[in-house]
Design a protein that fits this description.
It is built from ten helices and two strands. It is mainly alpha-helical. The N terminus is likely disordered.
């Protein structure tokens, strides 16, 4: 028997607030700046929308893997084995530094970019980069073992009732069901919206600003390098 009964009956509450809540949560999870979005931005600016989308899919597949590991209780091995967690942090740091070096090479090689349709190799390159980076990030495992566990456990969250001052008047208007497939569908739907919309925005901006592609590559290199060095420091000094 699974530790989290995801396929419970929906109950009398409507599922629309649950789906919307999941979408908002997915967007909040995917949108903050960081190594994943740096890779997506670089792939989009240099190789087009499809390459950026495939990079985003790599990160989303990693989240799906961590969800399944959390669902079956396997991911707890990472948090219960400090040596393994430190090894993952170190590996992730090295990969980020290596990808930062690649981004610098891309940026210095570009004088202007006319990105056509990406080849299969281009698309798989971004997918692999984001997937490997995400899978070596123990903080994503910790996320699914903390916040993710809360999403998997059956219950309800009255979102608007938490607002100060007006919460009592808005109670019951926006109730999200946790432990329901609709919440997770909405969450991954929100991530899908981001990984399609963000590359589209980068490509649209690049078409208006000729020098955006190398600038994005330099910015991606900086984000990856700083993140990689922070990961390596954490791996060495704890």
């Amino acid at each position: 028997m699974h530790p989290y009964p995801l396929f419970q009956s929906p109950g009398p509450l409507g599922l629309a607030p649950t789906v919307v809540g999941g979408v908002v949560f997915g967007l909040a999870l995917a949108a903050p700046p960081g190594p994943m979005n740096a890779v997506i931005a670089e792939e989009s600016a240099l190789r087009g929308w499809r390459a950026g989308l495939f990079a985003g899919l790599g990160a989303m597949v990693a989240d799906l893997c961590f969800l399944l590991l959390a669902l079956f209780g396997v991911a707890t091995v990472v948090t219960e084995t400090p040596g393994l967690q430190r090894l993952m942090v170190g590996a992730g740091g090295l990969l980020m530094c290596w990808f930062a070096y690649g981004a610098v090479e891309d940026a210095t090689a570009l004088s202007s970019v006319d990105a056509g349709a990406p080849t299969d190799a281009d698309k798989s390159r971004g997918f692999r980069k984001a997937l490997v980076l995400a899978l070596t990030n123990p903080y994503q495992v910790v996320f699914w073992l903390t916040v993710g566990v809360g999403l998997l456990q059956p219950g309800t969250v009255d979102v608007l009732s938490q607002l100060p001052g007006v919460g009592s008047d808005l109670a019951g208007l926006f109730v999200v069901q946790t432990g329901h497939p609709a919440l997770l569908a909405g969450l991954f739907g929100g991530i899908a919206l981001w990984i399609t919309g963000f590359p589209a925005a980068i490509v649209a901006a690049r078409r208006r600003i000729e020098r955006l592609a190398p600038a994005v590559a330099w910015a991606s290199a900086a984000v990856l390098a700083v993140s990689g060095l922070l990961f390596l420091r954490q791996a060495v000094f704890g």
